[in-house]
Amino acid sequence: MLRNKIDDILYLVEKPSRYIGDEINSVKKTVTTEMIRYGFCFPDVYEVGMSHLGSHILYGVLNNIEDVYCERVYAPWSDCEAILRRENLPLFTHETRTDIKEMDILNFTLQYELSYTNILNMLNMSNIPLRSKDRSEEDPFIMAGGPCAYNPEPLAEIVDFFSLGEGEEVFIDLMNLYREKKKNNWTKDEFLRKVALVDGIYVPKFYEVTYNEDMTLKSFEPISDEFPKKIQKRIVEDMNGAYYPTNFVLPYTDTVHDRAMIEIFRGCTRGCRFCQAGMIYRPVREKSKEVILKSARDILENTGYEEISLTSLSTLDHSDIKDTIYQMIDEHQSQMVGISLPSLRTDDLAVDVLQEIQKIRKTGLTFAPEAGTQRMRDVINKGVTEQDLDETLMKIFGLGWSRVKLYFMIGLPTETYEDLDGINDLGNRSTWLFKQIPAEQRQGTVSVTLSASNFVPKPFTPFQWMAQDTLETFKEKQKYLRSKIVNKKVKFNYHDAETSVLEGVFARGDRRLSEVLIKAYELGCVFDGWQEFFNFEKWMQAFEACGIDYKFYNRERSYEELLPWDFIDVGVRKAFLIRENENAINGVVTADCRQQCVGCGINIDLIGRDC
Amino acid sequence: MIILRIQYKKEQNMKFLSHLELIKTVERIFRRMQLPMSFSQGFNPKPKIAYAAPLPVGVESECDFLDVELTQKIDVDAFLKNQGDYMPTGLWFVEGKYFNKTKSLMSLVTDSAYIAQIEVSEPHEKAFVEEQLKAFLSQDVITYEKKNKKNKINVIDIKPLIQEADVLFVEANRIILKVLVTTGSSGNLKPEQLVKMFADYCNFEMVPGKERYKRVDLFTRDEQNKLISLFEVK
Question: Which pLDDT score is estimated for A344?
Answer without folding.
Answer: 72
